[in-house]
Design goal:
Elements lengths: L1 H20 L16 E18 L7 E4 L1 E12 L4 E5 L2 E10 L6 H4 E18 L6 E14 L20 E14 L4 E11 L18 E15 L1
Antiparallel strand pairs: 1-3, 1-10, 2-5, 3-4, 3-5, 4-6, 5-6, 6-7, 7-8, 8-9, 9-10
Length: 231
């Protein structure tokens, strides 16, 4: 139901805009906006983060219960040519995941809530097609550095005290696609993007044979963003 609601909200906002812009002979809106050397804007959106685990031994997996979080941030875009732009999109991303560790009878030991507030700094290349009336599809990709404010990396406590620890700084690559819609007053751009951590984020427990982290070789974030951009 969460996934259905997530997609429904995105489609509800995008479909009326698309219908209005896909006319055969539209009135051209904001004809010179893409000719500026610099563009500014902001984005709002949703996210759903997951974890990818790699294990030392092939035993029961750690279960991940995902939730829908939110994104908000700013956009700075530098024009290279008609088809290429470089983007900075610093943003705040909030999410929560619940981990279920195998082998425990007590829920207090088996369950760990991981609440993360990420400050994300992506540097992206936006590759667009030629403008078609009042809309223009694009692909976007690049790298990012993320700071996890809820990492608990410096905590002396570990899972034996109920504290799940992750590294504060994470490196990622991002890949997505979207459509620019040119309205009368602003450019509106819905997009969907995947984010994939390149570095291991797990801070192991102090005991190398910990029942929580002893069998985990690496833990990396996987996530999906649905963003609505206004420029």
């Amino acid at each position: 139901m969460k996934h259905i609601f997530f997609l429904f909200m995105a489609l509800t906002m995008v479909c009326p805009m698309a219908k209005a812009q896909f006319n055969e002979r539209p009135i051209m809106n904001l004809e010179t906006i893409d000719q500026r050397f610099l563009n500014w804007g902001y984005f709002l959106g949703f996210n759903q983060y997951d974890f990818k685990f790699e294990y030392e031994n092939d035993i029961d997996d750690v279960l991940v219960d995902k939730s829908v979080g939110f994104n908000v941030g700013l956009i700075g875009e530098m024009r290279i040519n008609e088809f290429l732009d470089v983007r900075l999109e610093p943003g705040l991303h909030y999410t929560q995941r619940t981990l279920g560790f195998p082998g425990f009878d007590n829920a207090n030991d088996a369950i760990r809530e991981v609440k993360s507030t990420y400050i994300n700094f992506p540097l992206l290349l936006k590759v667009s097609t030629r403008r078609l009336g009042n809309w223009k599809p694009f692909l976007i990709s690049g790298g990012s550095i993320t700071m996890n404010l809820g990492s608990n990396e410096d905590s002396l406590d570990d899972n034996s005290s109920g504290t799940f620890r992750m590294k504060k700084i994470v490196y990622n690559y991002e890949l997505g696609f979207g459509i620019d819609f040119y309205t009368e007053y602003f450019k509106f751009s819905p997009s969907i993007r995947g984010v994939f951590a390149l570095s291991d984020e797990l801070v192991p427990d102090n005991d190398p044979n910990s029942p929580w982290t002893g069998n985990i070789n690496s833990l990396k974030t996987r996530g999906i963003f649905v963003n609505f951009t206004f420029e």
